[in-house]
Amino acid sequence: MSNIEAKIPEYFNGVGYAKEMAGLPLQAIRVPVPKPGIDEVLIHVFASSLNPLEYKLAELNFFGRTPPVILGFDIAGVVVATGAHVTGLKVGDEVTAMADCNGNGGWAVGGEGGYALAREYLTVKKPFSLSFRGAAVLPIGFLAAFLGLYGHVKEGDSVYIPGGGGGVGHLAVQMARTLGASLVISSGGNAESRALALASGAHVVLDYREDDVGAKVMALTDGRGVDVVFDLTYSESSFVQTAELVARGGIWVVLGVGPGRTTRRAVTESPVNEILERRGAAYANANVLRFYTDPATLDDKAKSLLQLAMKLSMEWAENSLVVPHIGKTIGSTTSEINEELQNMKSGKAPLGKIAVIVDLRSAGTERA
Ligand SMILES: NC(=O)c1ccc[n+]([C@@H]2O[C@H](COP(=O)([O-])OP(=O)(O)OC[C@H]3O[C@@H](n4cnc5c(N)ncnc54)[C@H](OP(=O)(O)O)[C@@H]3O)[C@@H](O)[C@H]2O)c1
């Protein structure tokens, strides 16, 4: 049984895919507003953000869902209904959440908001000082950076994070500093992304297209290598390069399914394990999606970690420790969403995060 107080429509016009593995463009699809399960809240979504996950799901449908699937898993808005076991949130709370990525998200056309379910442990109250737009760009990117760095970066560590101008990368660079790293090295493929990595707090930012990255990282660490590598590039050639840069006793953390599997379409041979073994370095995998592909991993410990990450995302943003850079804000129309997902896919996306205003009345209409 749910506690429902607000007036909720029966249907809304979501944005997603109606056919398996059809890829872009997404389309508007009329779907019923879902009812919360016992540990879920129903959120009236005011703002959201874009992640590569959305175009990848449209192309590969790798959770095996039966369409229609509504996308937009980063959400900020107001709780309009709660499940029977939800104790920490109530109707009317302003929140930020990550919707289950093997479920539906909250993008909707029409400017009156979407509706999405989120687990209580993936939902956090939004501080008054953060806008819905500012909060909505955090969940997936922050969770990815957090799973990659929290518990791995210690006070005084040296860290290498390639791609510090990306959606996850610029948050990860700030997070490494917040966790006490004394040397953060990053990289970028163009002047703008390198500038964002630098503004995010990296001590040194290399040009991964022109520089001899390996030689420079070694020179910066007196030939030792870094204590922690967090490779979020989904690039096999980067994996091979960055695995060679971990110090003995250090750790190489990869975001996603890891070496040999980045496309999800085929498994290829990768020398990364061998390199790490030779260097006496550990391997770790950070993957927000793992909790959905392998639900057994979503135990109480994992739920507490995710809840901690969601709380810290708000706290650190409020205290200016990890602040998302919003490179562009778009309206929640199929054409704007399709255009920016296509840009993201071809590596032409604006820097940092792209925010989506789903409810024009409540989230503001500001454009960054
Ligand atoms: N499984 C998970 O839990 C999870 C969660 C979140 C994201 N992801 C994945 O993580 C990846 C990054 O996500 P995002 O939102 O940050 O995407 P994004 O905003 O498109 O950023 C991609 C970044 O990768 C950098 N890059 C690409 N190749 C590189 C290389 N060889 N060396 C150094 N940097 C390189 C790019 O740098 P330049 O622009 O400077 O070239 C850019 O900064 C995506 O594939 C996404 O699907 C996975």
Précis, in short:
With 368 residues, the chain is α/β, with parallel strands linked by helices.
Q: What would you note in describing this structure?
A:
It holds the Pfam family ADH_N. GO terms for molecular function: NADPH binding; oxidoreductase activity, acting on NAD(P)H. InterPro entries: ADH-like_C, ADH-like_N, ER, GroES-like_sf, NAD(P)-bd_dom_sf. This is Enoyl reductase (ER) domain-containing protein. Keywords: NADP, Oxidoreductase. The chain is α/β, with parallel strands linked by helices. The longest helix is centred in the C-terminal third of the chain and has 19 residues, at 300-318. α3 crosses α4 (169-178) and α3 (139-149) packs across α10 (300-318). It has helices at 52-60, 132-136, 139-149, 169-178, 191-199, 213-220, 236-243, 272-279, 290-293, 300-318, 334-345; strands spanning 3-4, 11-17, 27-32, 40-49, 69-70, 74-82, 94-98, 114-119, 123-125, 158-161, 183-188, 204-207, 226-231, 246-255, 282-286, 326-331, 353-357. The chain is built from eleven helices and 17 strands. It is globular and about 65 Å long. It has two domains: 3-138 and 298-357, Medium-chain alcohol dehydrogenases, catalytic domain (Quinone Oxidoreductase, Chain A, domain 1); 141-288, Rossmann fold, CATH 3.40.50.720. Strands 1, 4, 6, 7, 8, 9, 16 and 17 form an eight-stranded mixed beta sheet that branches. It is 28% helix and 26% strand. α5 (191-199) links the parallel β11 and β12. It binds NADP nicotinamide-adenine-dinucleotide phosphate (NAP).
